[in-house]
């Protein structure tokens, strides 16, 4: 009877061992397929990220070219006095900030920052139009004084900027 029990256990052991091996192999295959699938999906997502980065870089480069072109037009208009002096200084300074913030801090262009800072309190657009002639007078006087003090330096700065943009 003991021999029969041992024989049954041996036959049961032989039957379950292949099932465990088959089961382990099946799980290994499933896990491998999952890992390969996830790796493929991760690759797809990274490609999308890289493509989005390339598109963003292209968009930024296009914006920079557009701002450069805008600065050239404004600088030429400023130098040929096609706009009020203070307005030209302010517009050039603001676009230069967006074109290259480090460039704005350069000593050659500080005069534009000075004019911008000195005129920030002056009303613009509709607020300016709403002022009476008497209310506009102190602001006009201040603009004239700024122009007398900074016109020569601002012209030099804009000429320097134009040379830089055209090189």
Features:
167 residues; mainly alpha; elongated
Folded structure, characterized:
The protein has 167 residues and is mainly alpha-helical. It has one domain (2-166). It is built from six helices and no strands. Helix 1 packs antiparallel against helix 2. The radius of gyration is 37 Å and the shape is elongated. It starts with a helix and ends with a helix. The mean pLDDT is 90.
Whole-number tally of structural domains: 1
Described by strand count, sense and barrel closure, the largest sheet is: none
What is the number of E strands?
0
Q: What is the first-to-last residue Cα distance?
A: 103 Å
Q: Rounded to an integer, what's the Rg over CA atoms?
A: 37 Å
Gross geometry: elongated
Spans where pLDDT lies below 50 across 5 or more residues: none
Oligomer: single chain
Strand-and-helix sequence, N→C? HHHHHH
Helix/strand/pairing category: mainly alpha
What do the pLDDT scores average to? 90
Percent helix, as a range, is over 70%
> What proportion of the residues form beta strands (DSSP E)?
under 5%
């Amino acid at each position: 009877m003991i021999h029969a029990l041992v024989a049954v256990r041996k036959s049961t052991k032989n039957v379950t061992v292949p099932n465990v091996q088959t089961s382990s192999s099946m799980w290994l295959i499933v896990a491998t397929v999952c890992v390969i699938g996830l790796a493929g999906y991760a690759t797809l997502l990274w490609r999308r990220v890289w493509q989005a980065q390339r598109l963003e870089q292209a968009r930024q480069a296009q914006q920079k070219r557009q701002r450069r072109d805008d600065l050239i037009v404004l600088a030429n208009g400023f130098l040929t006095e096609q706009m009020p002096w203070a307005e030209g200084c302010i517009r050039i300074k603001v676009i230069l900030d967006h074109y290259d913030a480090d460039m704005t801090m350069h000593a050659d262009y500080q005069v534009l920052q000075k004019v911008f800072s000195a005129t920030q309190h002056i009303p613009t657009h509709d607020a300016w139009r709403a002022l009476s002639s008497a209310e506009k007078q102190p602001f006009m006087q201040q603009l004239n004084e700024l122009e007398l003090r900074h016109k020569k330096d601002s012209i030099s700065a804009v000429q320097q900027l134009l040379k830089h943009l055209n090189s």
